[in-house]
Amino acid sequence: MGVVGVSLMLPDQELAEHPPPSYLASSMGAEVLEKGSPHKLEQPVPISKMMDEVKRLENEQRLERARKAVEKKRKGEEKRKKEEEEKRKAEQAKLAEVQRRLEEKKKMREGAMNRKSSEKVAQENSSVTMEATAYTNGVESTGKQPGDKAYGITASGKHTQEGLTVACPRSFGIGTWVNIEGIGDRRCDDTGKDIVEGRIDVYMRNLSEAQEFGRKAVKVTILNKEG
């Protein structure tokens, strides 16, 4: 009589070699699968879904690269414009400085010429052409108003007088008499910061007359008389 073999298998091993029918597997549910059943398999991800994900990531990377390129270009453009603006301002400042120096040289030359002309009048008692203007006692000419302490007072300390008072360059000297072509004899009782060499300013009482007088080139002669 032969010996009947008896299979001694552990429950999990037996279940692995002889899986239960599908109708039992469904009834066993999560209880069997949670115990480490080898039949617990993850569902594979479809190839199409994987490809879609790859494309999505590639698109995101492409968009990010494009965004960075645009940002880099924008910053480069801003930097270029800023450098151009700074260069333009520097050139303008340089040009303004050159113009200022040229203007200073021009004024110095004109001042030297006018000073020479005035000195010629004083030293040689000859006539010279000067620029004649007119002024009043008012604020538009002197910055003073009626009631001010020095209103109507000249540099000589005398009151202004129409037909007598004239403002001359300092080189003429206060009290010097001059003859102004077309105007007559006047006395240098006044001066001022705007009365530079080569310019003479005739006092007039009426503002409209002074404005109408404007600027004129006149011949001026220093006279040898006092009073």
TrEMBL record:
CDD domains: 3D_containing_proteins (cd14667)
Lineage top rank: taxon: Bacteria
Alphabetically ordered keywords of this record: Signal
Region: Disordered, residue numbers: 1-93, 107-127
Composition bias, Basic and acidic residues: 32-42, 50-93, 107-122
Segments forming a coiled coil: none
TM segment ranges: none
Protein's name in the database: 3D (Asp-Asp-Asp) domain-containing protein
Annotated organism of origin: Terribacillus aidingensis
